[in-house]
Amino acid sequence: MTLKADWPVINGPVDPDSEERLFFTEHEWETVEAATARIIPTDQDPGAREARVVVFIDRYLSGIDYVYAAADGSGFLKMSGRYADAWRARMADMQRTYREGLRNLDDVSVLEQGGIFKELSEEGQDRVLEVISGAPKPDKVTLGTKEAVTTFLQGSFDEGLEFFPALCLHTKQGFYGDPVYGGNKEQMGWKFIGFPGPKSLKDTMDGTYSTHEYFMEGEFDWEDLVPQLKVSTFRDAEA
Amino acid sequence: MSITRKPEPVDAIVVGLGANGGTAAKVLSEAGLKTVGFDRGPWLRAHEHYSGDELKFVNRDYMWPDPKMFPRTIRYDENAEAERFPFSPTPQMVGGGTNHWAGWVPRPRESDFMMRSLHGDVDGASLADWPFRYEHLEPYLTKVEWAFGISGIAGADKYEPYRSKGYPSPPLRPTRYGKRFYDACNKMGINAFPIPHAMVTNNHNGREPFNQTSFWNQYGDPSGARSNILTTFIPDALATGNFEVRAESFVREVKLGKDGKATGVIYIDAEGNEVEQDAKVVVLALGAIESSRLMMLSKSSQFPDGLANGSGLLGKNATFHEYLFAVGLFDKDIDEPLNGWTGNYISGGSLEFYETDENRGHIGGCIISASQTCHPVNWVFPGRPSWGDALKDADRNYFNYAMKIGLILHDLPVESNRVDLDPTVKDAFGLPVARITHRPHSNDVAMGKWQVDKNMEILEAAGARKTVPVYLDKMTGNTCHQHGTARMGTDPAKSVLNEWGQAHEVENLFVVDGSGFPTATGVNPTLTMMANAWRCSDYIADVYSKGRKERLVIAN
Hints:
heterodimer, A: mainly alpha, two-stranded antiparallel ribbon, 8 helices, globular, B: alpha/beta, FAD/NAD(P)-binding domain, eight-stranded mixed sheet, 11 helices, 18 strands, 22% helix, 17% strand
């Protein structure tokens, strides 16, 4: 039994340009590539297709060898014991969700639009996604309005998700996650959004990567920000 | 299963090595007690295992409990069947929630210890005073601030009660959204200040806080910046030579002897063997959900309803502090970027609205703070479109042009809000999991609404062009704060623990986490919990272990 602290590193970073398929069939690969390109479309900026989201999802679904990158991004952690058992069971469910979901996507496409999903026009594909999501295509966010929402947990784990919500979540993950996982090719998701991410995960471990220039600019005095300090009787020596 | 091993007895066992168990381990081992600490999760090495990987830390539960191994269930109605849900998923590992936390560590207020005296009977709630007061905790708040390492500016919080010493570290530089928050509050006459933070920005205690990545809330920190039990109190305890860590070891029962005292614990080690460890004192610190669950799993003829549960209150009066907030969006074409992903989660905050003002239509109040909107995959924008051009536009336009102001809901204790054993769902060890039954008190809903609306006003004063409020609907446990399941009090009929965290009915069983909190407080609870754990551990080492007994009398 290897303790979690001692899980070895296997594989290497995923090559985003790989055409090798570890989980999807060729047809599934092409269908996922088409569908994710409707979730994060290509416009004046690159989208899911250019960022190689399909490679990211294929590796994730291939088993449990691409779940956790090594801390420094040199490869992936080889899980063992109960952790591995839990992930294997979860991944088997997610593989089934994708296989059945993709089959259903084509069935709905044929029924609604007279052809399989990957061969439809973008408008036709959007129509099919509306049908399988059970809701109209989301409206653009506009300023000057108020909408209330209710509470949710931090983070979002994919256990138990149905096909379309899983595909949306995984598309965002593949577009914006660290490139070690195979998506976000050349950090194009980060560049698009204006996030100056680290060159490598290793740079986040040793002080190489710093974000301080993105904090408040210029000189400042705590007494200006916190006027209470001008009248306060207690201040630390160091502050 | 049968017992395969029985190691030498020790002086003390600590179950759960998070904020509170780590504090107990340090105090007990430094006092000379031979102590063994158990954690069901791993013992990771921060400098080797932690980095800025959003998928691993935020989406794939590298530190959060695996919901297949340790499920929980929730129901919002007494008569409903509970559903699986990762309610209040605090990391279960050496260091516990201090591995992933943002680290808000404000001090509690004097009023937090006397809610019953201040408000009397409140319909539907079960308010109780604490069996001690702020003044009893103050020396321990200071001890934790200095030993653990907290940054802040004493005197900046206008409403803070007496403190005997300042902070060991100055705060982090403000973020851009923090600056917006300060300016808006100053315009509105609100006392905003840098919220005390469980991190150091200097070399306090020889630490090296080189992490400036802004990968903070929910991520592990590979540097010495974050105050994490894993990298502070666990090494302190090990340095005494009196402490041993047994990680990936699942304690499934506290054993009771014929004399009515706990004899030790039975646990399943990493290899799957069942092992029995005896000790003179058993200290529980698994968090209010899992500590009460372990006591419920430890049934005996003397305690058929759970260990030390003669009062019948075990698991009841649970409070969870839902995190509510409002997000403000700014206009990319006009406004300066806010870089909401920067900083170590928290920036400025305020306790301006903490004390009761009956004009608001509710009692109590809570802390508010401007905080990070986090990283690209999961950035916090409620109402973020799920797919298509709308998603892409929203990310492009607002990722760097949003800020949020949150609050920690000071929820009232309600006896029927509770933890018990789920009748059907089992964990990876075949044991019944914790089931949460919860329905918010009307005061919780009212406080949440009032404060979220106030936060929107502040956002508007800060220049937000659109605000999105997140109100309380039902509890999800999204703060990971847990309290109340084994109330402290002086009357054994109305509480499970006494003022030292000692079970009324089992004298060598102590619970030193949030389980003992009679009420939730309106601040992030970890500093209060750790100070209390230190206080109770001092009692174990200096009084109980020496065969003596003391009572704390509150002067009126």
